[in-house]
Description:
The protein is globular, with a radius of gyration of 17 Å. By secondary structure, it is mainly alpha-helical. The chain has helices spanning about 5-10, 15-35, 45-55, 60-75, 80-100, 110-135, 145-190. The chain has a single domain (about 20-70, about 80-190), classed as Orthogonal Bundle (Arp2/3 complex 21 kDa subunit ARPC3).
Amino acid sequence: MNYEQSLYKFRQSHIRNREMTTIAVLTALAFISRICFYMLPEVKPMAAIVIITAICYGKFPAFLVGALTMLTSNFAYGQGPWTVYQMLGMGMVGVFAGLFLKNQDLESKKSVIITALVGGLITFAIYGFIVDTGTIFFFQNGITIANAIAIYTAGAFFNMIHAVGTVAFILLIGKPIFKKLKRIKVKYGIFY
């Protein structure tokens, strides 16, 4: 499917109030989870919620939940030019989770473990890379190889903590949230 076809398909799709409400509630849940864990740097359930959203509802709703969570929660943490990169990064976590974890059913322990490990890898590689790349552009003296190496090296530690936190939260809350979202999907016929 090329760009014009996907754009046409998007324009023809109609997001109903049920779906918008579900996206808003999941965004609020991820927002609250970020605020509640403010005292632990990089250990937040946000990415886990975005990944579970991608498994249940697909890439597009997960992108919206991820991007809107970063936008709204930065009203508490502080808005700035980094917000765009955080929105893109968390949204892309949802897209990649939707691509790689689409057929996961978090009913079995093995499936939850696979989802947690792949989710941690996506969080480390995608979110970390996008946010760290955005940080490189903040240098006033220009972008150099030394600046890029310093940013990626310094960011690797924080990205690893974020990834491990995502794995832990998927293992802890993945199955119950998945069951609730799946029930909502079936009961109200959303995101089919």
